[in-house]
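Name: Ubiquitin-like modifier-activating enzyme ATG7
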Amino acid sequence: MAEHENGSVLQFAPFQSAVDEGFWHRLSSLKLNELGIDESPIPITGFYAPCSHSQLSNHLTLLAESLPPEPSEQSSIPTISRGNRNRCPVPGILYNTNTLESFHALDRQRLLKAEAKKIWEDIHSGKVEEESAVLSRFLLISFADLKKWIFHYWFAFPALMLDPPATLIDLRPASQWLSLEEAESLSAACNEWRNSHSTTDVPFFLVDIASNSHATIRHLKEWEACQRDGHKFLFGFYDPCHLPNNPGWPLRNFLAFICSRWDFEKVRFLCYRENRGFADLGLSLVGEALISVPQGWKDHQHMPNAVGWELNRGKKVSRCISLAKSMDPTRLAISAADLNLKLMRWRALPSLNLNILSATKCLLLGAGTLGCQVARMLMAWGFRKITLLDSGKVAMSNPLRQSLYTLDDCLNGGQFKATAAVKSLKRIFPAVEAEGIVMAIPMPGHPVPSQEENSVLEDCRRLHDLIDSHDAVFLLTDTRESRWLPTLLCANANKITITAALGFDSFLVMRHGAGPLSIIHEYKAETVNALSAEVENFSLTDGDGRQRLGCYFCNDVVAPVDSTANRTLDQQCTVTRPGLAPIASALAVEHLVGILHHPHGIFAKAEFADSTNSGSTEQPLGILPHQIRGSLSQFSQMTLVGHSSNSCTACCSTVVSEYQKRGMEFVLQAINHPTYLEDITGLTELMKSASSFKLDWDNEMDNDDCVEI
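Structure predicted for Ubiquitin-like modifier-activating enzyme ATG7:
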């Protein structure tokens, strides 16, 4: 029994906070995906319950569901449900700043007073009697360092100050204050209140004990029913504190409410606590305090002072937590990899569609200098599904120019480039879905011996299936003829196709136009790739009736032939200025990103920076050219357009139709007899006509009439 005859100032045990790791992960996601640089306050929900252990206090806890769900998470994040006895919801507000300096510069006293004012208004409006949890409103300020996964934060639990403060007369265990019959009845009433779905999370209540020792628990709005002669009357609340000589923090605003609502000079209160889920009147406290209504409290406009910032180990400083060490390395890598892309959407590129990039399946034909650079650039842009195809092995000369290989990949004859590149990609970013295919691409001008025909045809079919199962194809091989079959297969399947080719100090990057039969034949559901719905929605018709853009072979007047025979060493190797491949590779990937974000996709017309009707102002990523040709010797770059040719050996309707009719038989004939392609496309007749065309020169023309071109 603790008697306070002379009375002492009533002291309260401060609220303690606890933040689940899931809350910080959700906040990070919300910040990156939805909030951006918006610092508007965010409504959140905290949870607490009555003390349930004699040595430990309960904390106000923030969980993942404490934050509002993102639109994409409506079904995956559980909503806050009522009726959970272990989670009494309390409304709060979050101020998350963009910089650490802004966090430290916040006017904490102003923010605290603003939240205390809400409690004050809830008291005078009657909201407390309907929703008593608002008496425990809280405030959280934070800064999330998403690069280092460090979070700075500070809680405040606003408490209205009584002036003069309440005087404690008596505080003892409830079992000592009540008779045995009253204690048994109150325990039963409390257990019933806590077991009811409608009242278990109502933290403030009234206790009415009749003269026959029968106890009843009522809502605050039923206080008149408790005003009967011979009845004991207690103001009860869920007390998170375990201390035997101090009530918990929620009592502070409860007393402020009682002062404002009723004219009581003496208040008896019940600090309700539990043990193993049941009422424990030995742990619970009953106290008696003297209160006097401060002057002006009946006036709604009179705002009392407030306190409530949580101390950190006894000091008025913020708290800090680092999650980097506790996170799974792969998950940390994914978060870090997406960080730059998601930051783009804050200001520079709000329309950036990361889902379409991560869902696009990319096939890279060639895992050399260009293939390595393109693969890394794809990952930097958020592409996660990458397949590399190459038949070569890593040589000693490769690692310096081909960024995915090291000296270890060259030893013992060298690893296959395709498999070594995939291992390197996964070391760089474990979440990438990369696959390596060791296979040579059949080429025109490289005749196939009869004993190897079945193997080559199998490679052709495999390449067909690979292209069919991917959404975008990069042609990054060393020779011209190795690009012919992929170009034909891409034109047939109407795939996004990007070519990058290098000279010594010049480069070409281009996107192939749509296939010639894409307008004639409608796609069937089974031929549409597994790309996201947004890619599938690209238009399959050219509404303006424009001529198709050309492919890599559309300007040729001869069929591709063997370009490796009778070559010196410098002609056999890809001899280029080292800076050329990264430039061309970056432009190739930028091309793909532009196509995926263009409303017409593969059917988009060629655009120029100086074109008045390019429509670039409508595209956040800028223009979408057809060809980009650059020169390092001149440090110049220009955009060109080339339309499709009716005599193209790779993408004209004649060649594609012939492939669709004859399949692999046609491919084998084109490989063994390159002039066959010239014959069926009309190039043979064109060359004959050109050779028979004669020019008559006027030998008497004055030299002054010559024009320099």
